[in-house]
Amino acid sequence: MNDEVHWRTDITSLVFPVQGHGAICAVHRGAFRTLLGAEPSVDDCLGYFRRSEGAFRAAASAKIARAAIPAGTSLHLTSRDIARKLLEDGQIASGEQL
What we know:
single chain, 4-stranded mixed sheet, DUF1488 domain-containing protein
């Protein structure tokens, strides 16, 4: 599996592999729009992911556990999934919206 985080134009989403799960996790541009409070560019989405990567990965792990998503099954995160982890980690910077 490719460990690289990248943008998929066909689904308008950032995708990243979920370590130990054997699948990918997608985050749609709309989730970034909600988190950033503006219409984001692809670079905005990638930059936000890089700055908060731990929260994204924790949100994916939590969703897998909560929803009992079988290994190898891809999943997507919503802005709420991510915001929950950002709040838990105290990572929401001023100006960012939920």
